Amino acid sequence: MKKFFSALLCALLLLGIACAEGCLPEGAQLLAEEGDERRYRVEETGEELILSMQGESASGLRGEFAGAIDASWQEQSREGAEVALREEYPAARVLRAEETQLAGLSAWKLTFVCEEAAGWATLLGDRIREREVSFGAYFQEGRLTMTGARTVVLLYRPQAQLTEIELDEDDGLWIYEGEAILDGTEYEFEIHAETAQLLEWERD
């Protein structure tokens, strides 16, 4: 019996490591481990990554561009950036797209949510160059979970404090409704439970 539990523990540890590694982009090379963080580098994209762990599960991933500019990188359209994002985060729903600069070149910063990841990524030359992503269960059966809805509100309004949120059905449409405080002002909001779009943000 001891051997069984020992083997089970080893399998769970290996599974946790595999799941954590699965959160990383292709080509990520481990540089160092320190406490609950693992540092990686992706040579092809110039991205340096910090994978945050909670036990043996990945909880977040931060990436910063630390490479050299490649003359072959092409500026891309928003649509091209969204396609590139979905190569790494399939079925990502883009909540916001902003044109930005990265190393002096025009890039896209996309805020997104998908089934198991939420956050933002900066794309340049058809690749993610910077990111800040958290991992969790954000969608289930094509609809935002409560955790997903809370996360989405904070992606739209990062400084907001949620005071109330609930799922409501209106003529077959599932909506998260709630209240939040931002800069001392109370707001009411609505989030579409399937598309994660912010439908309403109004002063209470």
TrEMBL record:
Keywords: Signal. The keyword Signal applies. Residues 152-201 form the PepSY domain. PROSITE patterns: PROKAR_LIPOPROTEIN. The keyword Iron does not apply. It comes from the Bacteria. This is PepSY domain-containing protein. It comes from Candidatus Pullichristensenella excrementigallinarum.
